């Protein structure tokens, strides 16, 4: 039985939020390594980390129906990133975050943009 937290509308909302925050993180990350690693003003790093945390928090809320329908999405990796960014702040490595935003986030954005999530009342999500 599908719950309200696993409804097509809710899953579409979580995917949309994940995309929105991943896109913002990637935009900030494109400001370059010098801005990203600036010690005197770590604003770019802080912005990227914040947007990634929000993106992965949203994507980790996808319900079981969406997870079963899209098994190629890296759910374990998304959960790991969210956990580190949310609960292990002292363990967050700038180089790891820079790699996430320049390599992993764009790849995940491509995957998410291809998802076909059902409208309310549909039985199951489909992939292209």
What would a concise description of this structure say?
With 128 residues, the protein is mostly helical. It has helices at 8-29, 33-36, 43-59, 64-69, 75-87, 94-113. The chain has one domain.
Descriptive account of the structure:
With 128 residues, this protein is an all-alpha fold. The chain has one domain (4-113). It contains six helices and no strands. It has helices spanning 8-29, 33-36, 43-59, 64-69, 75-87, 94-113. Helix 1 packs antiparallel against helix 3 (43-59), helix 1 packs across helix 6 (94-113) and helix 3 (43-59) crosses helix 5. The longest helix has 22 residues, at 8-29. The two termini are 25 Å apart.
Give keywords:
mainly alpha; single chain; disordered C terminus
**Mean pLDDT across residues:** 86
In total, how many domains does the architecture comprise?
1
Order of helices and strands: HHHHHH
Radius of gyration: 15 Å
Strand content: under 5%
- Estimate the helix proportion, in percent: 55-70%
Number of strands: 0
Main beta sheet: strand number and arrangement? none
Task: Please specify the SSE layout and strand pairing.
Elements: H1 8-29, H2 33-36, H3 43-59, H4 64-69, H5 75-87, H6 94-113
Helix pairs in contact: 1-3, 1-6, 3-5, 3-6
């Amino acid at each position: 039985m599908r719950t309200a937290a696993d409804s097509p509308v809710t899953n579409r909302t979580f995917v949309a939020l994940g995309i929105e925050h991943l896109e913002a993180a990637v935009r900030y990350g494109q400001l370059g390594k010098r801005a990203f690693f600036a010690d005197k003003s770590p604003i770019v790093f802080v912005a990227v980390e914040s947007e990634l945390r929000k993106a992965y928090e949203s994507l980790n809320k996808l319900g079981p129906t969406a997870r079963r329908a899209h098994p190629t999405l890296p759910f374990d990796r998304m959960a790991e990133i969210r956990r580190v960014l949310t609960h292990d702040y002292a363990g967050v490595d700038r180089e790891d975050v820079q790699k996430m935003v320049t390599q992993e986030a764009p790849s995940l954005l491509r995957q998410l943009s291809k998802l076909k999530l059902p409208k309310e009342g549909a039985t199951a999500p489909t992939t292209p």
